[in-house]
Write the structure tokens for this entry.
Amino acid sequence: MTYITKPQMRHPSLKPNRVGFTRRDYEGRISTLCAGCGHDSISAAIVQACWELDIEPHRVAKLSGIGCSSKTPDYFLGASHGFNTVHGRMPAVLTGANLANRDLLYLGVSGDGDSASIGLGAFANAMRRGVRMAYIVENNGVYGLTKGQFSATADQGSKNKKGAVNSDSPVDLVGIALQLGASYVARSFSGDKEQLVPLIKGAMTHGGAAFIDVISPCVTFNNHGGSTKSYDYVRQHNEAVSRIDFMTPGEEIIADYSPGEIIDVPHHGDTMLRLRKLHADYDPTDRYAALAYMHQHAARGELVTGLLYLDALATDLHVALNTCATPLSALDEGSLCPGSAALKGINAALR
């Protein structure tokens, strides 16, 4: 983390949103990542998305694990709640925080090492339990903090900076999220802000487990010929299934998209995701068709991006557990500890 703060002075003509905050109010400290790192572009997209959504920064809880990606929450939403967990355990800590206080908006930021290696079990269980959160993986295919070894998401046959070839099959976090029940699944590219910002907005307002895998090139260790997660490779092999816009119940957001069919998908909280389909045979509401479509294009060397799957009727862990509407953190001692008579009744019901 960095202790270098940005200057407090700001331009007087900065436009405020509907809750009175300017874009600067959603920023954090100065980044210490390598110049050109894709992670900084993702941080900028998160800042833009939260500003456009009129989210009050103190309503957001941002959590991360260990790695370059897990440093980035220090670079956005400086006025929000934050917790940097141990390696791979961000989803577990976020689940506990979510159960304690359901009134906050939860944003989990992780990396391919943090989620696909040591934290794979925690990631999988957060998806299958439907924990309400926006889970963003900043995926660069290497361990950037430990000199660029292949991570679990590195594609088989890809080369590292020294020319060594990866012989292991990659962990497909998008496929796992789809199979285990995530109700909002997307993939994007850190260099495509036009696509990424609406996807983050959709994830932040979704009613269940929302997962976005963002290919984020490591300019130091994984941005060379032979890498499948470099800027050039992703730009050349990106296959966008849709162009997405996010609309609030109020003023419609206008975007300049290519001609094509438009589909409005109902979203949580009376908002709308507008998809401009680039592929007529793609259905974002069919979980298993989405998985098959992604694998078909992967076999051709194409990286499918966009909103891959959306369940408009998604529920979350609180619905499954039938928790009370009042956050557990706001309940008094009498409500949390109803006494020995109540405990005897519960135990009797379990016999």
Remarks:
- Residues 252-260 have pLDDT under 50 and may be disordered.
- The two ends are 52 Å apart (CA to CA).
- The chain has one domain: 23-321.
- Residues 38-52 form the longest helix (15 residues).
